[in-house]
Queue: 2 jobs
Job 1
Amino acid sequence: MDYVLKTNALCKKYKDYKALNGLSMNVPKGAIYGFVGKNGAGKTTLIRLICGLQEPTSGEYTLYGTKSTDKEILKARRRMGAVVETPSIYLDMTAEDNLKQQYRVLGLPSYDGLADILKLVRLENTGKKKAKNFSLGMRQRLGIAIALVGDPDFLVLDEPVNGLDPQGIIEMRELILKLNREQQITVLISSHILDELSRLATHYGFIDKGQIVKEISAKELDTACRKCIRLEVTNTQTLSRVLDGMNVEYIIVSDKAADVYARINVSKLTLALAKENCEVISMKERDESLESYYVGLVGGKEND
Ligand code: ADP
């Protein structure tokens, strides 16, 4: 598989605090990669690093195969557009003038493609209206339009639906899907809103305390969620040992129960447990949601 972005044991320290603590992630070409984590998990820090706004304390990443330590990284970064935190918009300018400004910043020889970008983000009819009079959703879309100048094939969006109303969220979702499907743009979206991401993402990276705790494709996640079996036993320590021996993925959910995310041979498992004096009290298939999968990985409470 081709990867647009790969990070290897990235660390970023702010004084003694490790905002990123050995983060390794892989964004496949063509993906909509949902970068999910609680507030304070380290999402924006990672995005600032790959955009070149800050330097890692240690570790490295590759963008289109170019190492972050290589001077060619600047060239690779030109293939990337980003909206980090609040979009950098001139509020006293129209949408068109904001875009023209970005063309000039990038030193592009003409305004080729400008009208197409405005149309793509559905701001083609905003005329003389200044950005300060735009809704939040329109501003967010203008931020994306600016990021699209220079024809990037990797778009990085930091919490793009934060603060948007339901209509704004739908428009943002449609835009991201369109960019991915029609323009073949790989998208990295950070969010702490799982439900919204689940309508978009083809891949997920779950981040907690500056580390990726799990990377999984939407397809695999679907399967994992469907195949979850809740096992209630008399001793979860024994269950852990036996499941480890069977090399299956599971999460201990209480002192009596575990969720197993794979097809298991029930009679083999029951026998193995019985040999170690552990009884199966109940076993039932659960239709697990993305949310409970996530909570199982990183716990339920916000860090802040
Ligand atoms: P997220 O985007 O997942 O909400 P951030 O990457 O913004 O998380 O922050 C990760 C952690 O690093 C937080 O605890 C935050 O307070 C801390 N942090 C971020 N930027 C700085 C900074 N410039 N100086 C000190 N601490 C910071």
Job 2
Amino acid sequence: MFFNGEFMPRENVQISFEDRGFQFGDGVYEVIKCENGQALALNRHLRRLKRSLDALEIQIPSELDFAHLTRRLIKANSLHDGLVYMQVTRGVAPRAHAFPENVKPTVIAYPMPWNNPTSAQFQQGATAIIVPDERWLRCDIKSLNLIANAVAKEKARRAGATEALLYREGLGVVEGSSSNLFAVIDGTLVTAPASPLILSGITREILLELAPGLSIPLRTEVISRHELLHDAQEAFITSRGIAVLPLVAIDGKIVGDGTPGPITQQLANAYKSLIDEAENLEAI
Ligand code: PDD
């Protein structure tokens, strides 16, 4: 486990109750997938981490090398397949809303086990419900304030669904509580454009880069609830952990013929091949 500049066993980590991450959710995080002992798309994750830190004006010490610490964590824990969780908060200060001066950020990073969805789970597909998006207006910052996401996911769990898709009034279904949403409508792949209203996932970015090479027509537009429920031939969600997971029913309505569609399979295979064939997984 990495904590404030040192590697140590997790039981030695002590974090103050006045840490602003604890009291205000004042911090950011990344979840990085590790395969074959390498951090997938590490460069993209670290760029996004920097964007999140800059957006919240959290300054990290110049000597802190996230790439180095990720590699060291993977190696020290012999992590072959799994996740690395990384979090930076503004630091510890007496409770007051405005940003404190001269505060030192709290940095933690540690490996986590992860079970990839099996090919049976892929074939079976997942279900989702649509719930109101109750998050703030800067969802592009990967902030620790995940309460609205947690509430949405809990609604999905209680409904027996895998994911809660977030519906913003007047706009449409923007993404999932912890995933990005894609649909295939009239043969065109559709997903919300990068904007402050979604977290532009790394898996999403990679799929958008793969689609033209597969001659899949693409449109970045928020999917209306009506389109998703009535016009979508295929739908799927993406994140580092699940990669590409088909949705076979949304709000109880069957998507397409209720099995993973051809474009979903094509993209899932292309994503898998990209990883299988990459020489440097950190740079994909
Ligand atoms: N969540 N949208 C939201 C709201 C997310 O929380 C996530 C990921 C994504 C997908 O991003 P990526 O492809 O970079 O994993 C989209 C992580 C996994 C989490 O909070 O655990």
